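Protocol step 6 of 9: fold each sequence in the batch and record its structure tokens directly after the sequence line. For illustration, a two-sequence batch is reproduced in full.

Sequence one:
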Amino acid sequence: MNIYLKQEWSPYTFSNGTRESVQKLLLAAGISEFFIDIISVDEIKSYKPDPAVYHHFLARTGALKSHAWLISSNSFDVMGAISIGMNAAWLQRSKEVRLDPWGIEPGLIVQNFEQLHNKLLSAEYLRHSPGDKELD
């Protein structure tokens, strides 16, 4: 991550953990300044991949689902986001790790944040779908 992240994107932390526990992790890692806010599923008392938590994320951020990207190394999280119409990138931490075989494929598979940044900047991934008018 770099200092320009918030200038190019609107990054949020979205977690099954409590806001307090996530805040401690971000502070300890020295990266809390890179995120606009922490959105915890604890706010609605449910867990990923329940579709309600992704809708909660969209409501809190004001993002259209067709414009929002969820980036996760957890395949269940990627599948949950895609299932409600969000975009998703799977951060494959190791070449040995495989995506769960449920027939739901992420828009991107990347090995690191630099690769993610470069691919999102390419015209191929910045096109928005016709469903942009949907606000549900």
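Sequence two, same batch, same settings:
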Amino acid sequence: MQDSLALLHFQTMQSRKDVNAANSIRKRVIELLNRQLQRQLDNILFLLTLRYSPDNIAVIKKGLKSKKVRMRITALEFLDNLIDSRLKRLLIPLFEVAVVDKKKRSNIDQLKLKIPTSYDCFETILTGNDSIRLKIATLELIRELQNPFYFPLVKNCMDSGDPELKLMAKHVMVDLSENRAMHKKLNP
């Protein structure tokens, strides 16, 4: 009885550690995605300087990066007044979601976007032109999730031209395979 209780306690503690590790990696992936989004918004603003006054775009950029919500809204309104209607339809919704309402999810509904699954997100990152750091962090998250459902994504990374990504994919593949084998032994 005491051995069983100790084993259950150990499994519970291990499960908590696994959840904490997955959450930590998930936060790192989100941080990398946020940085990538910020770089893309900066690139859009840079491209706007080719068509509009660089001074005006600099003021908008400074306002959009402000910690004050009112400053971000004012900068967005300035951008809205500055650019032509064709660009407005494309860019304003992006900046609204990315800059003004960082904590609110309601604006996503206004864009009528299909919310992708975790698998879709991981696939987009791992097969896209994202940074190797982001791809490796995504593989680390897959490793922590220990879900064999992601096996095909990891297998595709093993064909990568990047040696670091390829090595990480091999390690994750081994871990997922071991987990799958252990799961089959415990649940025949």
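Proceed to step 7 once all outputs are recorded. Observation for sequence two: The CA atoms of residues 148 and 177 lie 8 Å apart.
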